[in-house]
């Protein structure tokens, strides 16, 4: 990844962190940078979104990037090899934007054709969604950047998203057979650096 991390024992490192430093590591310095701890040589981590091309967030961010087809179009290809190559390209874009982690791919499930964020997701099929997402994750990580698929899980509400009071409560069967199944397929075919929660 962009910043080198030495081979220190992370258990020992955790014991060296103060409570305030631990809390700092769980927060962001800004919208696209996770804070580091300079005292212990823990570098900040820069992330960049990747819906149709990699772009850092923020008002002053450089938004120029090559634009790829949206994720729903990519899902229509059913071509994991092609999407693996796309992941490689996203990693190159991420590196150009000084990112160490690419936020994506999005593997929410198409449940309602009217949903405004379906363009960010592959399909209504969890097997296809998980396998294609795994191919992109593998492509990104083959180039030395981390991938952080999103949004775990049931992130398909259109109502009051900005108020952080969304209550997704599917029955156990659709939760298991549709929503979580996509993540199971992803994790069987790849080993992402992280997972963004819903």
From TrEMBL:
Q: In which pathway does it act?
A: Glycan metabolism; cellulose degradation
A GO biological-process term? glucan catabolic process
Known EC number: 3.2.1.21
Among Gene3D superfamilies, the record links this protein to: Glycoside hydrolase, family 3, N-terminal domain
Q: Which family does it belong to?
A: Belongs to the glycosyl hydrolase 3 family.
Which Pfam family name is an example for this entry?
Glyco_hydro_3
Q: Supply the alphabetized keyword list.
A: Glycoprotein, Glycosidase, Hydrolase
Q: Where does the Glycoside hydrolase family 3 N-terminal domain start and stop, copy by copy?
A: 32-198
This enzyme catalyses: Hydrolysis of terminal, non-reducing beta-D-glucosyl residues with release of beta-D-glucose
Q: Which GO terms of the molecular function aspect are on file? A: beta-glucosidase activity
Question: Can you name this protein?
Answer: beta-glucosidase
């Amino acid at each position: 990844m962009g910043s080198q991390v030495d081979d220190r024992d992370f258990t020992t490192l955790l014991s060296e962190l103060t409570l305030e430093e631990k809390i700092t590591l769980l927060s962001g310095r800004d919208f696209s940078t996770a804070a580091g701890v300079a005292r212990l040589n823990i570098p900040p981590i820069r992330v960049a979104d990747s819906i149709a091309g990699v772009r850092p967030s923020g008002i002053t961010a450089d938004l120029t990037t090559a634009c790829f087809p949206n994720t729903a179009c990519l899902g229509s290809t059913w071509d994991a090899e092609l999407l693996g190559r796309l992941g490689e390209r996203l990693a190159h874009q991420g590196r150009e934007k000084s990112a160490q982690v690419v936020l994506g791919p999005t593997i929410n499930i198409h449940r309602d054709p009217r949903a405004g964020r379906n363009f960010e997701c592959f399909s209504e099929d969890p097997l296809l969604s998980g396998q294609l997402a795994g191919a992109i994750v593998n492509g990104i990580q083959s180039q030395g950047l981390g991938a952080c698929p999103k949004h775990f899980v049931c992130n398909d509400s259109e109502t009051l998203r900005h108020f952080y009071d969304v209550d997704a409560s599917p029955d156990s069967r659709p939760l298991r057979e549709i929503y979580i199944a996509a993540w199971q397929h992803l994790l069987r075919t790849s080993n992402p650096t992280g997972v963004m929660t819903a």
